[in-house]
Amino acid sequence: GINAEYGGELISKQFFDNLAIEMNETLQETGLLPLAQLSREVSLPVSTLAKELVPRVGDLIIGTYDKKTDTLFTTAFVDRQAAKLRGACSAATRPVHLGKIMEVHGITASLGHGCVKDMIASGVCKDNCRVTALIQSSYQRSTPLLKISG
What we know:
It is built from six helices and eight strands. The chain has helices at 13-30, 35-42, 46-53, 75-91, 98-105, 109-122; strands spanning 2-6, 9-12, 32-34, 64-66, 71-73, 96-97, 129-136, 141-148.
């Protein structure tokens, strides 16, 4: 049946099912897939893709969806990002800016901040690090500074 209308075009549920299957193949190969990239390829707005494809995550799309960045990730990709960050933080011998660690090691910002929170919650950083917030004047968001002590 018809699922959505965009720009006067009727789009079927089957179209989105097929798109989800193709998208999943790309996601499994790359580890992450921004909906903005897919939006350019299929000429549909990100909001339409999110509305139609996010409900297929866990079924036709094997991964997780980050609503803040409109990006899909595989579990393996998230695990690799977390391992890179844990390794970099474990190797730090002085206070380091978390944003710089993520930039140098190609760690996605939204995942990196989540990984730091997980490391603190799980006790990985229990006795040897603490996180303080710095204000990024250009974005007015806080960026953690990881301080390693001991």
